[in-house]
Amino acid sequence: MINVTVQKLSTNSIDFGERLLIDSGNNVAEQYAEIVRMEFQDLKCKEHPDANQHILITAVKGTVPTVEKNFCCNDFKDSIRFEFKN
Length: 86
Prior knowledge:
single chain; 86 residues; alpha+beta; 3-stranded mixed sheet; 2 helices; 20% strand
C-alpha cells in the first residue's frame, strides 16, 4: 500500500495576495494528492509487498506541486508514473 501525504505551505503571511497564492497552492496539492491516492494507494511491490511506500506531495506557491517518491526499490519506483501539469 502506498501512503500519500501533503506538505502544505504556511499561511502566516499578512499580505492578502500572498495568502491567496498560498491557499491556492495548498488546495492544488490536496486535489492532486487525492487523485494519486485513488489511482495508486492499493498498489504493492511484487518483490517487497510489506514494504512501507510513500509519496510526498509538496505544495508550491503559484505552480504545480513537487513530488517525492520514497519506495522500496527502483523497479517499483519506476513503475509508478504520473505527471502534474499547469
